[in-house]
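In response to reviewer comment 3 from the previous cycle, which asked for concrete evidence that the modeling workflow produces usable outputs, we include below a single protein chain processed end to end. The sequence was submitted unchanged, and the resulting structure tokens are shown without manual editing.
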Amino acid sequence: MRRPGQLPAPFDRRAFAVAEARAVGLTERRMRARDLDAPFHGVRVATAPTNLLDRCRSYAVAMDPHSAFSHATAATLHGIPLPWAVERDPRLHVVSLVGGRAARGRGIAGHSTTARPLVARIGGLPVLSATDAWCSLGTMLQRDDLIAAGDRLLGLPDPLATPDDIDQAIERHGRRPGAGRLRLARSALRSGSFSRRESLTRLRLLEAGVPEPELNTVIELRSGRMTRGDLVFRAYRVLVEYDGEHHLLDARQWAVDVARHNDLVADGWIVIRVTKQSPSAELVARVVRALSDRGWRR
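The workflow returned the following structure tokens.
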């Protein structure tokens, strides 16, 4: 079988629209050759995209110019955490920004809006702003997942938006589907969260009726050292700490953590350490018991 001929530049280096290739004389037979991948209708690429950004770049060559990536796609591009079931959905979410017909096709979840959301650029691609992407999740996520996603807008290490930015995005969203859920979630957003797990843990604890913890705030030790705690109940000297896998894999970090833990205990702090395998009910019970031991009453 004869090998396909060399693609002309720039089609040999990037995804291209079939219509664009036809215009310069590339034949239908060449575009159906086995060395090209067709990730979306009307799109060809020499190397199949393997990550979200490359998939978006592939689709963008044939995307309506009045559209932008939205919903879960935009949120992921901004680094907003989502439930695993939503993250693993392979579809790209695309919104028509002028209220036109929603995009259709294999691998595409099309939407349409007249809300006039703000559009940012990520990797040269049109993507709903972080706050408008969050608003578009109002119909996709349940309350706690929406709050955890919204906490990232105000969270660490670098906030993606200000409280005013969020409020303005909610106003742009208006009374469209999900508006009520967005407003309820907005009242529960907090700055200072470092992760989705921290946010969900905070919500579980608040549901149990405990006082609201400070998030990732500074603790001054008697030794003069300063440290930060994940969820800090300062009035009761109770601290909830999330231990990620890096604590186990990095010997130097582990040594620092042990010394820090010893300093906190020496200063009278009750430190409750949590991993992703820790049962939620057990964590809540431990925190309630620790706070009660320190004088907290429901």
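The chain has a mean pLDDT of 93. We consider this sufficient to address the reviewer's concern, and the full set will be provided in the supplementary archive.
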